[in-house]
Design goal:
With 167 residues, the chain is of the alpha/beta class. The protein has one domain: Metallo-dependent phosphatases (Purple Acid Phosphatase, chain A, domain 2). The protein is 19% helix and 33% strand. A five-stranded mixed sheet has the order 3-2-1-9-10, with helices on one face. The protein has a five-stranded mixed sheet with strand order 4-5-6-8-7, with no helix packed on it. The protein is globular and about 40 Å long.
Length: 167
């Protein structure tokens, strides 16, 4: 049975925004699984997403400390409808990212990461798909914030959609 997924990262609530965008909350409420690739900043957001999400797969980021690091791992793994997913906040420089991550995560089909706030969707030579949902609250040099929805079915990721978040 397919799983509906929401991917987000670098939410930085309440430092960069008072709350998540309404569209992202709606996607979280509708999804079977929410994946967050770190930089929550405040444990209150983790509590709120845990209350609303059917299932949460999440890690801490470089801006997460204290209780967030106590409750979240640096790397998370899950199998979703045969799709082997790994989640980490940082992957290093964009140059050589695919090859470097393929070596680091040889047993994953999909690596979800954050940190750069730059939406990213590529595939390494080994078949590892790398996905960065961007940030829904801190677009930095991007034209708008983003989050991603997708479907996991039959060991693959389908219907990947980057959703723009208005300023």
């Amino acid at each position: 049975m397919p799983f509906s997924l929401v991917f987000t990262s670098d939410t930085h609530v309440p430092k960069r925004a008072r709350d998540l965008p309404h569209a992202l909350w709606s996607a979280i409420d509708a999804a079977d699984v929410v994946v967050h690739a770190g930089d929550w900043v405040d444990v209150a957001l983790l509590d709120r997403i845990e209350q609303r999400a059917r299932r949460l797969v999440a890690v801490y980021g470089n801006n997460d400390h204290g209780r967030l690091r106590e409750r979240l791992p640096e790397v998370a793994r899950a199998e979703l409808e045969g799709l082997r997913v790994a989640v980490v906040h940082e992957t290093g420089d964009r140059k050589g990212r695919e090859a470097r991550c393929a070596v680091r995560f040889p047993d994953a089909d999909l690596l979800v990461f954050g940190h750069s706030h730059i939406p990213w969707d590529t595939t390494a030579g080994t078949g590892l798909r790398l996905l960065n949902p961007g940030s829904p609250t801190d677009r930095r040099r991007q034209p708008h914030g983003t989050f991603v929805t997708a479907v996991a079915a039959d060991g693959a990721l389908h219907d990947v959609t980057f959703h723009p978040v208005p300023r």
